[in-house]
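input
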Amino acid sequence: MLKKVFIITILALIISTTFIKNYTKKLDEEIFSIRENINYLNSVKKLVQLEYDYLSSPEKLLEFNSLYFYDELSFAPKKNIKVTNNLNQINFKDIEQNEQ
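output
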């Protein structure tokens, strides 16, 4: 009788260890996946923050204009800016005339 109880106890421990091990393996995979997602989102956040920091203020844009473009950029009134969804709609002859 004592042998049967001992064997049943050992089998119960082995089975419970198997379930616990599988469960912790799934948890580790989820944790890894979540950490990877967090790392990706942090890198995207840093890029967006960098873009915001450098391009958000007019002073920075004017500074970049003089630093990198050697004052080649010019101001355009808001009424002259047109939004298009199709590149075929752009008349490049008008753009060349505006630049001269």
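quick obs: The helical segments are 2-55, 58-68, 92-99.
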